[in-house]
Amino acid sequence: MVAEVGVAKSTVSRWVRDLPRPSTLPERLRRMSEARWGRHRREVALRRERTRAEAAAQVGRLSDRELLLVGAGLYWAEGAKSKPYRTQERVLFVNSDLGMIRVYLEWLRLLGVGRERLRFRVMIHETADVAAAERFWAEQAGIAVGELSRTTLKRHRPSPGRRHTGEGYRGCFVVTVLNSADLYRRIEGWWCGIVEAVVSAARPTG
């Protein structure tokens, strides 16, 4: 260009310095790759949501018996259990998943466990928004924040891959049933009954 117009290189540089520069090949390839991956991620998200919705629709309305069995399995998987070396027989459930807490509370209602026998507590890392978590869980339980037992604060120990702060983190909700030894034994019995029913159905006949 310098030779064609017969001016100094520095002059040409001043002429063209503000013009948009063409994208380099690697930059174009990066944008093309991002566009393809963006479409792929959207398609995967749509398939995921469609599968989830179809599966949820298969459940339909639960009968009391079905909820009884679901709750027994839920508790035996996630709730506190006696150990061979320490018999406690108390009903205590800790979870961070709102859906699990909702099902569990509805299950307790089905079992006739009154509000006067329930104690609620938040367990959360000390660096999180404790007050917001207390308000959230109290609302879900249908109680005032003042009715919560004293919050358990967990000492903050940074761990790669785990987030104990930020939007969406509300710690765990602890639900304790008072005078619950008899209820604990019934839960254990329901679980044993579920296991026996499954095992019996799997046994060959004849």
Give the CA-CA distance, first to last residue: 95 Å
The largest sheet has its strands arranged as 1-4-2-3
Helix/strand structural class: alpha+beta
Instruction: Give the H and E element order.
Output: HHHHEHEHEEH
* Continuous helix count: 7
Any idea how many domains? 2
Overall, the morphology is extended
Task: From the alpha carbons, calculate the radius of gyration and give it in angstroms.
Answer: 30 Å
Number of strands: 4
Biggest beta-sheet profile = 4 strands, mixed
Q: Report the sheet-strand fraction.
A: 5-15%
Query: Are there runs of 5+ residues with pLDDT below 50, and where?
Result: none
Structure, described:
- This protein has 206 residues and is an alpha+beta fold.
- The chain folds into two domains: 1-60; 64-202, no CATH class.
- 53% of the residues lie in helices and 11% in strands.
- The chain is built from seven helices and four strands; from the N terminus they run ααααβαβαββα.
- It has a four-stranded mixed beta sheet.
- α6 (130-141) links the parallel β2 and β3 (152-154).
- α4 (64-78) packs across α5.
- The radius of gyration is 30 Å and the shape is extended.
- The termini are far apart.
- The mean pLDDT is 87.
Highlighted features:
extended, four-stranded mixed beta sheet, 206 residues, 53% helix, alpha+beta, 7 helices, 4 strands
How are the secondary structure elements laid out?
Elements: H1 2-5, H2 9-16, H3 25-59, H4 64-78, E1 91-95, H5 98-110, E2 118-125, H6 130-141, E3 152-154, E4 172-177, H7 181-202
Parallel strand pairs: 2-3
Antiparallel strand pairs: 1-4, 2-4
Helix pairs in contact: 4-5, 4-7
